[in-house]
Amino acid sequence: MKISLIVAIADNNAIGLNNDLLWRLPNDMKYFREITSGHHIITGRKNYISIPQKFRPLPNRTNLVLTRQTDFNDEGSFTFYNLESAIDFAKSNNETELFIIGGGQIYKEALEKNLIDKMYVTHVHHHFEADTFFPEIDKNLWEKISVNAHEKDEKHPYAYSFVVYEKMN
């Protein structure tokens, strides 16, 4: 099973403020939905509950929520207390590509433990004030395998690029 992460990050590595997104980019939301649909996704509890309730659990995906709260339960999702047990659950369900979708602590842990094989990164070409940041992408460990750049337009207030990275051997 391949373990991937998907994230949108600003030029200053910002990914969130007050447990919310920093921007609204409809094409990024569509990209996220297309890439993760039909797969298991791992998210931290705070990230999960920041999703509007009418969209939880995310449809057409198996939602795996990481939390330290032993009483957390959200119908339609599965609760885990560590990253490895959530990964094992996806493997036991014959997942081919598992996605880590945030938040910041989950990204950091997965990268520090060297669990990630592939990264789908939307680079938002702007600096934002934030309280949550994505770790610096080490260019010695990750190779860009595709780049799809977009200019700002009437629906997208910032230029952005969809970049796929694979771990170098």
Characteristic key phrases:
single chain; 169 residues; alpha/beta; Dihydrofolate Reductase, subunit A; eight-stranded mixed sheet; two-stranded antiparallel ribbon; 4 helices; 21% helix; 33% strand
Q: Which CATH architecture would you pick?
A: 3-Layer(aba) Sandwich
Give the CATH H-level superfamily: Dihydrofolate Reductase, subunit A
CATH level-1 class:
Alpha Beta
Q: What's the CATH topology name?
A: Dihydrofolate Reductase, subunit A
How many distinct beta strands? 10
Q: What class would the helix/strand composition place it in?
A: alpha/beta
User: What are the low-pLDDT stretches, counting only 5+ consecutive residues below 50?
Assistant: none
The H/E string reads EEHEHEEHEHEEEE
Count of helical segments?
4
Give me the Rg, rounded: 15 Å
* Percent of residues in β-strands: 25-35%
Q: What percent of the residues sit in helical stretches (DSSP H or I)?
A: 10-25%
- Mean pLDDT equals 96
Intertermini distance:
17 Å
Please give the domain count: 1
In which order are the strands of the major sheet placed? 5-4-3-6-1-7-10-9
Using the alpha-carbon principal axes, give the shape.
globular
Q: How would a textbook summarize the main sheet?
A: 8 strands, mixed
